[in-house]
Design a protein that fits this description.
Helix content: 10-25%
Number of strands: 29
Shape: globular
CATH class of the largest domain: Alpha Beta
Distance between the termini: 42 Å
Radius of gyration: 23 Å
């Protein structure tokens, strides 16, 4: 079960018109493609996705992308928040979302539930996670990261005994409470060298539950969130186990995290591997032509299919599908999400008559450290530089978050604008 219903307020304005799991990633994917691809690569083919806020584009993407063979019993079903005779409320938290979707689980004969987040970037073989849960005879298993003290206060932390059983959970502790959560991370498989530096276990928000145990825990109406109520309550009475994941993982919770994760993909050896033949990332199939590139200078960048680049200069940038960059465009560390459609010749002529920029980035525009959302129209000789290094600002037709300038979806930036 993939939780995709969060409002994603910290990713605003990218979540103004879409849910967080539907936010485009790496030029051609969406965040939801990561956990769903991990499931498929782990031979898990019965998947529910719970949705709530701004879910139309997410629902459409899932229905168009994840269609299993008619000879398979696999599925990816979207379960939207819905009013019933028994419940008139929206999802109140992660645990409450599963509680409200329980009748859909009852229709299956499964005895184990894997609960995933729809907005994390990582590659995991869930079969190892599940096997650890079954071998240990646990009621609940939590996937964890071994982290340093520097980052520990940003996470829910677990304390374990020498057998890997969770004995305490605290949400984002600080001060003495934080220091009290130190553990010997070598007991869950970390090397002694790494264990001396990474002395805290952070919850990834990924769980395995025995369904009969989860059913009993959800009977308590006060348990609306896994991390805040249900897991801490279960530790006292149930066998809750920690599973160590020692790979790259990023919670795409803020503009800064989203921006850095995308730009890192342009490096020679990125932290997240899009090119792993053993763990491909799936997304919607598109009948798009190859990118057309003419007289460009391109360094350390990703160029998605269907793009047209004419005389542009790019450095450390991610160019999404159907992007159009005109002559003299200069991008440095920019995410261009592309477009949902091509403009016709007639529409382009209408744009010129109306003095409106075409979809894409116009001639001579210079952009640094920015996110250009889909269908944006950036005029000629525009400069998006944030030269004063402003941290956060709500401007006219633009936002700044974590020093990154964001041009929202469908917005027009007139010729000669300076940001």
């Amino acid at each position: 079960m993939v939780l995709g219903g969060g409002q994603g307020t910290r990713l605003y304005p990218l979540t103004a018109l879409r849910s967080k799991p539907a936010v485009p990633l790496a030029g051609k994917y969406r965040l939801i493609d990561i956990p769903l691809s991990n499931c498929i690569n782990s031979n898990i083919s019965k998947i529910f996705v719970l949705t709530q806020f701004n879910s139309a584009s997410l629902n459409r993407h899932i229905s168009r992308t994840y269609r299993f063979s008619a000879f398979s019993d696999g599925y990816v079903d979207v379960i939207a928040a819905e009013q019933t005779l028994d419940n008139r409320n929206w999802f109140q938290g992660t645990a409450d979302a599963v509680r409200q979707a329980w009748r859909h689980l009852e229709a299956e004969s499964a005895d184990t539930l894997l609960v995933l987040a729809g907005d994390h970037l990582y590659q995991m073989d869930y079969r190892l996670f599940l096997q650890d849960h079954w071998t240990a005879g646990a009621d609940i298993t939590i996937s964890t990261l071994a982290i340093t003290e520097e980052n520990a206060s940003q996470f829910g932390l677990l304390k374990i005994d020498r057998y890997g059983r969770v004995v305490e959970f605290r949400e984002k502790p600080v001060g003495e409470e934080l220091l009290a959560m130190r553990v010997d991370t070598s007991s869950v498989g970390l090397s002694p060298e790494k264990a001396t530096k990474r002395t805290f276990l952070a919850s990834m928000g990924i769980y395995v539950f025995n369904l009969n145990v989860l059913r009993e825990l959800l009977k308590e109406e006060a348990h609306v969130d896994f991390g805040r109520q249900l897991i801490p309550a279960a530790i006292a009475t149930r066998h809750v186990r920690a599973f160590l994941y020692d790979g790259y993982w990023e919670d795409i919770g803020t503009i800064g995290a989203f921006y850095n994760a995308n730009i890192d993909l342009t490096r020679a050896i990125p932290k997240f591997n899009l090119y792993d033949p053993e763990a491909p990332i799936y997304t919607a199939p598109r009948n798009l032509p190859a990118a057309k590139i003419k007289d460009c200078i391109i360094q350390d960048s990703l160029i998605s299919e269907g793009s047209i680049l004419n005389g542009a200069e790019l450095h450390n940038s991610v160019i999404g599908i159907r992007s159009r960059l005109q002559h003299g465009v200069n991008l440095d560390s920019v995410i261009v999400m592309g477009a949902d459609y091509y403009e016709t010749i007639e529409e382009m002529c209408e744009d010129q008559v109306a003095g409106r920029p075409l979809i894409g980035i116009g001639e001579g525009s210079i952009i640094r450290k920015a996110i250009i959302d889909k269908n944006a129209r950036i005029g000629a000789n525009v400069q998006i530089l944030n030269e004063n290094r402003v941290d956060d600002l709500d401007g006219e037709n633009f936002y700044i978050r974590d020093k990154v300038v964001i041009i929202p979806k469908d917005v027009t930036i007139p010729d000669g604008t300076v940001i």
